[in-house]
Records
---
Amino acid sequence: MESPTPLRLKEARKAAGYTQQKLGLALGMEPNTASARMNQYEKGKHAPDFTTMKRIADELGVPVAYFYCEEDDLAELICAWNNVEQAERVKLLDIFKRTVLESKSETDK
């Protein structure tokens, strides 16, 4: 199975309005290698280590988990979750848990 990271990286970079060069420079890469390094990450030829991916995520305003998530709908949920205040997260998590338990009890009947 292919890693979801390269495609997610490209999508997040474009959504944030960065070129490969601009993102590389924002991360502190050398100007003469920034674009090439980002291109290699997006092509899947090389994978950034976790620390680098965390810096990329912070720069692009997405959670680092987004880059590693296999399922598209879960990746979308991770990004949405990132934009919710902590107090709302507690409420949403409670609703989610109750919904899952109710659904499970219905299927167990």
---
Amino acid sequence: MTSPEIELKVLMLASLNGDAASHRVLLDRLSRHLRAYYKGKLARIGRGAAEAEDLVQEAVLAVHFKRHTYDPLEPLTPWVHAIARYKLIDFLRRNRTSLTDVPIDEADEVMAHDDNLSAESSFDLKRLMQRLPEKTRCSIVAVKLDGQSVAEAAERCGISESGVKVNIHRGLKTLAALIAKETRA
């Protein structure tokens, strides 16, 4: 049996060569790995599975949009892990989680990093976001892109805080489905 690194790298290379089926399998397997990673990290700071699921969706989207930056000569899992860490750091910043909430053995992983999308990926994201309902789009932009709190987003979008949370969760799932659909085409 081959290692997960080898299996994932083979899927990534096939994906980069235009194999939509491999891309779907890659994103599915990465989702499982990332879900376990985020649940473990967030449980240590008293956060729940719903937040872990949001981070999984964000990381999978980032892998999809940033796949062109992957160097095929390098191992895949450290590249994915770096994206996952940066998404976790962004989450901690957005939620104003203090470094004192992070266990000491995890503190070295929490550092500043600029995780900007390339112009091409930003265009893809904007195009896909236009396909979402207005309130859903507003919720995602406010919280996930602009870094506002859920309360601030609720006021900005004119909906309840629970509505913002639901919109983000459903919107990220819809975006993931749209990406999967486009990779099949």
---
Amino acid sequence: MSVYTVTKTRFTEGVWEGLVAAKEADAAPPEIAVTHPERSLGAVSLSDTGTPGRWVLRVPVPADLIGDGVQTFVIADARSGETLESFTLIAGEALGDDIRAEMALLRAELDLLKCAFRRHCTETP
């Protein structure tokens, strides 16, 4: 188990941000490695928050890695190799199929609820 945890704070303007927290307040800053199946991302930055054992992690997502399909990025402790967090971008047709499937499921559930409600109304005096 890693001595660090990563919690996402936001993802905006192509930059994923998170808070890295150490279990021990006097821990040294971690060495963070962010990888994508195609390559390692080198522009990762870690800055001090002013609170011992806490750092802000910024991961700029390169524009050439944004495209159709599912893109997964893994954030790991470079010293131990342990995965701390990951995030996924979904775009294009993969996203369209997912949304259509989700809408179909919601419609089916709504129809089921309507039938149950109508039956309840007719059976209740």
